[in-house]
Amino acid sequence: MDYYFLFVQGLDIVAWLFILFSYYRKNTNKILVFQIIATSFFILHYYLLGAYSGVFICLL
Question: What is the pLDDT of residues 43-60, one digit of tens each?
Answer without folding.
Answer: 999 999 999 999 999 888
